[in-house]
Amino acid sequence: MQFEFIDYDGGYPNLCFGRLKFKADGKIYEADVSLISGGSVWFDSHWCEHVEEGPWEDICDFDLFETYPELKEHKWELLKMINENVPHGCCGGCV
Q1: Does position 14 have pLDDT exceeding 80, yes or no?
Q2: CA gyration radius, the chain
Q3: Which of 40, 42, 69, 94 has the most CB atoms at less than 10 Å from its CB?
């Protein structure tokens, strides 16, 4: 399946949640998704925050794979497209 990114409206402070729109094999798909980041946020001994962005590691969909079951077997290809087009997150950017 060939994926083409169209849009993702997730942004600060919740970059990990948004409406994803893309094309796959000529068909347009659109759904709300929640992305799991490989980044992190931690505090040092002086309570200074450290934010580390990382690539998206998984898709926790709300209705994407139920609405479009044909995409389920292409989840990792879809995630690759997301990582190439959506800024990486930190899973704590709302700190």
Answers
A1: yes
A2: 15
A3: 40
